[in-house]
Design goal:
Number of strands: 21
Strand content: over 45%
Structural class: mainly beta
Oligomer: single chain
Mean pLDDT: 88
Largest sheet: 12 strands, antiparallel, barrel
Length: 339
């Protein structure tokens, strides 16, 4: 009997402790959910509960209030970051109170860019997209496979990202088509919406006779718009490019500058858009410049599946002999996101 009473007492203590640590979420339909805030990024709040094995993915615009005793890293649209608990303000929807060096500060939910729990594990900070597209046509035995693997990792002061895309085409009576795009880099966030960035970009395509173009760049930029539903930024810097060709053309090395624009739009219903454009004027090859352009449109489906439409375009005003000055690829694919 004593063992039973002791077990009940311990269970009660554990339940009380867990309940005391639970977070409270109020939605626009006035529903209240009790559970644990996992993170908020790109206008999507991830929230877990004890009664469902799957996390809830909730659009940030549907949140009216949020209270938690956890410590979070909270990023605001003006570029400032705070380490604080978070609590709803009585009588004010979509307004929360956070700590600013010991002084309570009211913040609109619309001004919060991301929320990340302190001490969150590596996997909680990681987002991975994997998609695949297949086209088969009986005429001329045409076959095409496209693949896309991308990942991003969010930390307190920086975000790292990488991607790897391939296009493989086979057709009777025509040369095979092979294309590869890859990227690895990150941004380090500075005060007042400035940032430093570094990136390695790789490209291989048959149209421009590129076995491999490797571009290593570093610079800085500024967010003109940065909130939980939209990013618009510009950055510039220097780059070094090394090119190996599939023809007999000799390898080329080039020192370049670059100017780039980036635009990301989230929470258009289930739609998101990401666009990046960069111009590379050469310092070491007179009159030469290159342009890279990428566009991705993603439509979210249930169970973390999605459909993606993508366009990549590359231009070089001084290609090697026998190569085209430009190449582009348009892809459609079906994929799954791990977040």
């Amino acid at each position: 009997m004593k063992k039973v009473l002791l077990l009940i007492f311990i269970t009660s203590l554990v339940h009380t402790a867990v309940f005391a640590q639970q977070d409270t979420l109020k939605l626009s339909n006035n529903d209240v959910i009790i559970g644990s805030l996992e993170k908020m990024d790109r206008s999507i709040l991830t929230f877990s509960t004890s009664y469902d094995d799957s996390d809830f993915k909730i659009k940030w615009g549907e949140v009216l209030g949020l209270t938690s005793e956890q410590e979070f890293i909270i990023s605001i649209s003006d570029g400032e970051r705070y380490t604080s608990k978070i609590s709803s303000v009585d009588g004010k929807d979509k307004v929360v109170s956070i700590d600013n060096n010991g002084t309570p500060m009211e913040v609109s939910l619309d001004d919060i860019v991301f929320i990340e729990p302190i001490g969150g594990n590596f996997l909680a900070r990681l987002t991975v997209d994997l998609d695949l597209g297949i086209t088969v046509t009986k005429a001329n035995d045409f076959q095409q496979i496209t693949s896309n693997l991308s990942a991003s990792y969010l930390a307190y002061k920086w975000r790292a990202r990488g991607l790897y895309k391939t296009v493989l085409s086979r057709q009777d009576g025509a040369a095979d088509i092979n294309r590869m795009d890859a990227e690895l880099g990150g941004d380090y966030y500075l005060p007042h919406d400035w940032f430093a960035n570094a990136k390695a970009v790789f490209l291989s395509n048959d149209e421009q006779l590129l076995d491999l173009r490797s571009t290593y760049q570093a610079g800085g930029g500024y967010y003109f718009i940065r909130n939980n539903s939209m990013f618009f930024s510009a950055n510039a810097g220097v780059a070094f490019t090394k090119e190996n060709f599939s023809s007999d053309a000799p390898d080329r090395n080039s020192t370049e500058g670059y100017v780039a624009l980036g635009f990301n739009k989230y929470a258009i219903g289930d739609l998101s858009i990401q666009t990046a454009a960069a111009v590379y004027p050469s310092f070491s090859q007179s009159g030469r410049y290159r342009i890279d352009f990428n566009y991705d449109m993603k439509y979210d489906l249930p169970l973390d599946f999605y459909i993606r439409l993508g366009l990549s375009y590359n231009y070089d005003n001084q290609p090697v002999e026998g190569a085209a000055d430009s190449d582009y690829v348009f892809t459609t694919s079906f994929g799954w996101e791990w977040n």
